[in-house]
Amino acid sequence: MQCLLPRWRQVLIFQSLRQLLCHSVGTLAGVTVGLMIFNGLLRLAGQGPLHADVIAGTLIGSLAGSLRAPYEVLPFRWRLTAAYPGIVAAKATAILAGIKYQPAERAGDRILYRLAVPWCLSWLAWRESAVEVRVDGPDITITGAHVAVRRLHQALQDDPAVLRGGESDI
After folding, report:
1. What is the pLDDT of residues 84-113, one digit of tens each?
2. Which residue ranges does UniProt annotate as crossing the membrane (predicted)?
3. How far apart are CA 82 and CA 20, in angstroms?
4. Nearest to residue 28, comparing CAs of 74, 72, 53, 59?
């Protein structure tokens, strides 16, 4: 399994402006609501308001912790060779369905999967989280979000139908 971005580009984990904006708005809204609730509970308990250093520490910690989500959708590729590629592709469909990926496009030997999110959260559905499974004879190439490709790698690497699993530097 290998990342498709060069090393210097992996530091800039946001792949599009839309991804950066959605992540920023969601994170800041969640942190703001959490701080408001916590501050309100403190005041109800008879304590004073939150100190500035607590607010700053909470903001820095939550922003740093929230960067895991864009890291998990960095594009990765895993190539494998299978004795029965149709069966392995069907297993990949079942594994992806287990982590809420649904087939979105089919074109010959290629299936594109997108993350299924409720309509009210569709603004969070980053196109960067898509996964493509391409079958070319006995060779299967899985390209997409790190979290999904890693899950497929973990589930399929010891499958008896997989003859050669490619790189395993997860």
Report:
1. 988 999 999 999 999 989 998 999 889 999
2. 20-42
3. 37
4. 59
